[in-house]
Amino acid sequence: MTRIPQLDSKTTAISADSDLIFVFQDGAKKPVPPKGPYSGLISKFRQAGGFEARAGSTQFVAFSGKGKAKHVLFVGLGVSGDLTHEKARQAGSYALSKFLGEKTKSVNVQVDSLFEGKNLKDPMSFLRAFGEGMVLSAYKFDRYKADSKDEVIGPSKVSYVSKNKTMHSALSGLAKDLMNVAECVNITRDWSNEPCNTGIPEYYAKEAARLAKAHGIKCRVLTEADAAKEKMALFLSVGAGSQHEGRIIVLDYHPKGAEKTVALVGKGITFDSGGISIKPSAKMEDMKHDMTGAATMMGAILLAAKRKVKNRVIAILAMNENMPDGKATNPSSVVRARNGKTVEIINTDAEGRLVLADVLDFAHDFKPDCIVNAATLTGAVLVALGKQCCGILGNDDGLIAQLKNIGDQNYERMWQLPMFDEYLEDMKTDVADLRNSCNDPYGGTIRGGIFLKQFIKKGMPWAHLDIAATGYGMGHVAYYPKKGASGMHVRTLAQFAAEF
Ligand code: BES
Ligand code: ZN
Ligand code: ZN
What we know:
Blueprint: E1 6-10, E2 18-23, H1 39-48, E3 58-62, E4 71-76, H2 85-102, E5 106-110, H3 123-137, E6 157-161, H4 168-193, H5 201-214, E7 218-222, H6 224-229, H7 233-239, E8 247-253, E9 261-272, H8 292-306, E10 312-322, E11 334-336, E12 342-344, H9 352-363, E13 370-375, H10 380-385, E14 390-394, H11 397-409, E15 414-416, H12 422-425, E16 434-435, H13 444-453, E17 462-466, H14 490-499
Parallel strand pairs: 1-6, 2-4, 2-5, 5-6, 9-10, 9-13, 12-16, 13-17, 14-15
Antiparallel strand pairs: 3-4, 7-8, 8-10, 11-12, 14-17
Helix pairs in contact: 2-3, 3-4, 4-8, 7-9, 8-14, 9-13, 11-14
The protein binds ligand BES and zinc ion (2 copies).
Residues 272, 290, 347, 349-352, 376, 378-380, 437, 444, 468 line the site of ligand BES.
């Protein structure tokens, strides 16, 4: 198991292996020498035409001057007026890989150098983004490798250092929060990356109970018998072919005086073989990630609890395995949902909407003020939107606008797809109230959404995030792992839980 760098803050710097200095290009697009002992070095690079301080560029040099560090890493941030939070996040990631390559053990981030950016509005927000880029890059899923070591990826200690004493409490708050962000995002990643033979519903139920206890969150686990008592026949129909029993995990973070309740619902298919409508074998191994919606909501509620947000947050994780078997549900089966509607199961591979239908209905029992669900629901969302954003659908434009806005702030972007009533026509059948799939190959993400909508009661604000494209395989982004789960959307959902 790997660990993340420990972040803290200091006013008087105890010396570290390396200093980190931010450099802007504010002087006619040329690097501006930072104040302090390293200004001469930058002038030298400038004359030599070397380090230009473009955003994301780095220069690692040995230092034998008056300062105390043996090395210094210059991190270019470009023209300060053009700096975006995402560029800062990427710069954080590049800085971490540089330190990793150089085997640097301790770093002092000289924060005051960031404040030299002339046109930087809200510099603290850039320090946050830079820090996110660093800590989110320190992840490896190696628990099953023989050479797995208990070691930190990158420097074991990173300190935010400022000479300005009034900054100290803000910096230490930021450092602590960044550690919490990394810890929770990494829990989401670990959950999603867990292989399907070990990552069975019971495993996640135990992990959830353990993590909940450590964070003052109540946890109740429903077994299949409990689900049967709750009349969740759709949920049960999906797991009918599995040797592993399904679980519904209910987490309740309930701070005193909470006025609003946010319900977070996650699809947790621990392996999606497609069931009797079996999938082709190419890339089928990726379907261990089909519980990433549940993993994302787990990370989000933990981060909300660590931050002690004022709202009550409920997370409901529907864990089940979709397998073919003699006992598995066959296409043409008609099953009655918890809300009384009957569903003709045309395609057992459209299982996510079946488990969600019952737990979305169940979520209303907690009388939340809104319901947000996350699910790797359709391959079609990759066709529609690619990997730059997830799909968002729902019944409340205000709720969707707020989620999109927070998503933008975190660069976990969302794009709204329509839910015109006409799409529902495709989900009708002569045999039952609804069918779970139709033959039309187009607009699949919308049809998934419109199906879920049938299980949301009138007046309940609801949004559905289809994260099939963004939940894993995001290696093109610097601070996400090259392979496997990304942990995307945890930061947005935790912030949403606080701000709703
Ligand atoms: N888990 C899949 C969706 C998925 C596909 C996620 C590819 C990630 C990558 C889901 O259960 C599924 O199989 N959906 C079907 C729906 C169809 C049968 C209506 C799909 O997307 O093809
Ligand atoms: Zn499926
Ligand atoms: Zn699935």
